[in-house]
Amino acid sequence: MSTWVLGITGGIGSGKSTVARRFAELGIHRVDADQAARWVVEPGRPALQRIVERFGTHLLQDNGQLDRAALRQLIFADPPQRQWLEQLLHPLIAAEISQALAKAQSPYAILESPLLVESGQLRMTQRLLVVDSPEALQIERTMQRDGAAREQVQAIMAAQAAREERLRHAHEVICNDRDLSWLDQQVRQLHAFYLNLRGGQT
């Protein structure tokens, strides 16, 4: 039986990574688009060279790694620069993701990505699960997790797809505003449901 792909997305601080980890613990092959995004800008990869040529060596840390936080700050304030970066990175990230998904041995695989809808990665999936949370909760969680300022979190949220847009594409939605045991139960129910799907279709 061929493996189909479940996309998991949600705004920053929604808990999508927690949900994806729960599926992985149930034996489901998990691909994290953020990891692919980190891998394509590793030292020695062509994308890093292009970024340094455009923005300067001050974006490199002492060990030669990209200072992702500095780059994020730079492009969030400048939409044309963000567009340039996305045009460079999105095809490279998509290629990495495809290779990682091709290794799946489980009945279905997960592609976890914060930019699933807006990056075009949705085309690589057969079904979409959106992890949703009240906005105030997203902001609090992210500030706690990253030590980020409220304004910075709000800027990141503004750059991600609008909640309505994500929900419009969703096949299933988990509203993650309760405790972890409740979340675990939701994942187990969905997992049982997904195991009975052929190609991600009911």
Short description:
By secondary structure, the protein is α/β, with parallel strands linked by helices. 51% of the residues lie in helices and 12% in strands.
How would the blueprint of this fold be written?
Blueprint: E1 4-9, H1 16-25, E2 29-32, H2 33-39, H3 46-55, H4 68-76, H5 79-101, E3 108-112, E4 127-132, H6 135-146, H7 150-159, H8 163-169, E5 172-175, H9 180-195
Parallel strand pairs: 1-3, 1-4, 2-3, 4-5
Helix pairs in contact: 2-5
Keyword list:
202 residues; alpha/beta; Rossmann fold; five-stranded parallel beta sheet; globular; cytoplasm; kinase; coenzyme a biosynthesis; Depp_CoAkinase; P-loop_NTPase
What does this structure look like?
The mean pLDDT is 91. This protein has helices spanning 16-25, 33-39, 46-55, 68-76, 79-101, 135-146, 150-159, 163-169, 180-195; strands at 4-9, 29-32, 108-112, 127-132, 172-175. 28% of the residues are buried. It has a single domain (4-195), classed as P-loop containing nucleotide triphosphate hydrolases (Rossmann fold). It has a 5-stranded parallel sheet, with helices on both faces. The chain has 202 residues and is an alpha/beta fold.
Count of helix runs: 9
The radius of gyration computed from the alpha-carbon positions, rounded to a whole number of angstroms, is 17 Å
**CATH architecture, please?**
3-Layer(aba) Sandwich
What is the CATH class designation?
Alpha Beta
Query: Can you say what the CATH homologous superfamily is?
Result: P-loop containing nucleotide triphosphate hydrolases
H-E order: EHEHHHHEEHHHEH
What is the overall silhouette? globular
Number of strands: 5
Spans of at least 5 consecutive residues whose pLDDT stays below 50 are none
Q: What's the pLDDT, averaged over the residues?
A: 91
Helix percent band: 40-55%
DSSP strand content: 5-15%
- What is the strand arrangement across the widest sheet? 2-3-1-4-5
CA distance, first residue to last residue: 16 Å
Pathway: Cofactor biosynthesis; coenzyme A biosynthesis; CoA from (R)-pantothenate: step 5/5
Binding site for ATP: 13-18
Enzyme class: transferase
Pfam families: CoaE
